[in-house]
Every structure is written in C-alpha cells, then in structure tokens.
Amino acid sequence: MTSFKPHIVISSGEPSGIGLDLCVLLSTKKFPAFITVVGDKNALADRAAQLNKSITFYENTSIEHKGDHSLSIHHIPACENIQTGLLNPKNNQYVIDVLNFALDGCLNKSFDALVTAPIHKSIINESQPFTGHTEYIAHYTDTKNEVMMLTSKTMKVALVTTHVPLSQVSRLITSEKLEQTLRTIHRDLIHRFKINSPKIFVAGLNPHAGENGILGLEEINILTPVINKLKLEGMLIEGPLPADTLFTEKYIQKADCFLAMYHDQGLAVFKHANFGLGVNVTLGLPIIRTSVDHGTAIDLAGVGNIDPNSFYSAIDLAIDLAQKSHV
C-alpha cells in the first residue's frame, strides 16, 4: 500500500440534516489521510454539543485525521441560523457555497478527492433549478457524460438515467447515451479502480429484456447494437439481460459492474443488499467524488442514533481512489 496520504475534502451538506452529525462522528474515527470539513464551524460546534461530543477545531489548517476528537475545518458561515431538523430555504446559497468551495479545491488540486454529505434536493429547488448532487457537480466541472454508480464490497451498479420521471426513461435511452455511459464506466473501472478488462453486465429495459420484441423494442433497436459494437472493440460486455434475474449470484460472481437502465431498477436491489454500506461514486468527472448512499434524514438529525458506515465507506473509497491515482 502506498504511503501517500491524500487530502480529502468533505462538503457538510444540508445543515439541518445528518450531514453535521456525520462530521461530528468523524472526529473520533481515524483515517490515513488529511481531511478538511467545509461548513459553518459554529453549527458544527452546536451539533457536537447536542450530541454530547467535545471537538477541537483547527480552522484553515491541514492536519492528518487521527480520530482524536478534532476536525480540520474551512469555515463558511451559514446565511441564517441553523435549526436541527428544520429545513430553511434561506440557507440554500450556503449549501451551494460549501459545495463550490470543495469543488474548486479539487479542480485546482488543493484536495485529492471530494466526499459529499447529503443535501435536500427539494429545498434547493425552491430557489434554483437543481436535480441533484451528481448533476450539479457534472455541470460545475463541465462534464458531459457523468455516470452515477453505487459500489460496495460485493457489487457495483451504474445507471444510464438517474433522477428523471419513469415516463421519460425510454426516450432518454438513446444509442449515443448508452454508448457514452458504457465507455465512461469501462474507462473509469480501468483508470480509477485499476480493474483490468472489466466485465460489465447490462440490464434490459423491458420485462424479460423485451422477449424478442414482444414486450418492447428498445433491446433490439438500441441496446443490442451498442453492446455488439463495443464487444467488437474488445470490451467485455454481456446483455441485454432480464433485470429480474440479473442480480443473482451467478452474475454477481462474474460482474465487475452492472448497468441498469433507470434509478430504481438498479438501486432498489443494491440498497436491499448493501444499505448502510454502499457508496455513491460519480464516474466521468475530472475529480474523484464519492458520497453516502442515503439522504439527509432530517428526522434523525441531532438524535444521536445514526449509522455512519456509508459515510465512512465513502471516505475509505475516496482515499483508495486517490492513492491509486497517485501511483
């Protein structure tokens, strides 16, 4: 293992949710990295007090994260007073400012990877168009072909479409979109994850992968031609395969990544098998970005009864990918 200790930046997310709780708990967990939390220092101190935790803050100072009840923090003041468990749209710009600072630091190489705590899409949408973290980060980094992938120790599941209504999925799955998605997955599995000759298993869109056209033509007209084209280039891709039997043991043992056509087709299975242990990673970006596999959990904020394992796993993966990119 490389001795290189990367510098990880954490955007603290929606301040009324569990993002601050996660950052407070982080202070007691040791990682082989420098970690900087971006957010309102006073809000973090208040949440720590609410959780009966004592934290030493090092503002604008990079320190190795030793789990000694301390946090390195870049302070960005909230626009309004933060109340635990109470969403406030007046703090939307603060949430965006926190994220932008972290992104800028990754783009200018001040940080080696970004871990994002969860944000609340609907509250941000009250002041500006915002479909999600992944889409915002892709736009900010001028990325055209980002791919959302959930990963755990047992499986990786990527998506062709993400946060769109189910009624729009079919028209959004074009030959160009599918090909770009598969190329991005293939490239990042090789270059980010260091998986040689990755095997990708592709789900069909329709029940039974269309049943030879009886239950839909997308497999015949779009999926199969693209898959065959890329297989001729040497990519190890199988499909389209019926989604109802895709996530079974015989495929899990062989696949480096599954590709689902839409959000719930892939993530319902993934979260059933890995909830609390999965990590959301965005492929195709010029930076490394990981995140938790859950939301803001407003009702659990400040209660002291949350599971931080997905957050810790996201940090572990960010460190691992940063170390691999450093080699």
From TrEMBL:
Keyword Nucleotide-binding appears in the UniProt entry: no
Source organism, top-level taxon: Bacteria
Gene Ontology process terms (BP): pyridoxal phosphate biosynthetic process; pyridoxine biosynthetic process
MF-aspect GO terms: 4-hydroxythreonine-4-phosphate dehydrogenase activity; metal ion binding; NAD binding
InterPro entries reported in the protein's UniProt record: PdxA_fam
Record's keyword terms, sorted: Metal-binding, NAD, Oxidoreductase
EC number, UniProt record: 1.1.1.262
First-tier enzyme category under EC: oxidoreductase
Cited PANTHER family: 4-HYDROXYTHREONINE-4-PHOSPHATE DEHYDROGENASE
Keyword Transport: no
Protein name: 4-hydroxy-L-threonine phosphate dehydrogenase, NAD-dependent
One Pfam family hit: PdxA
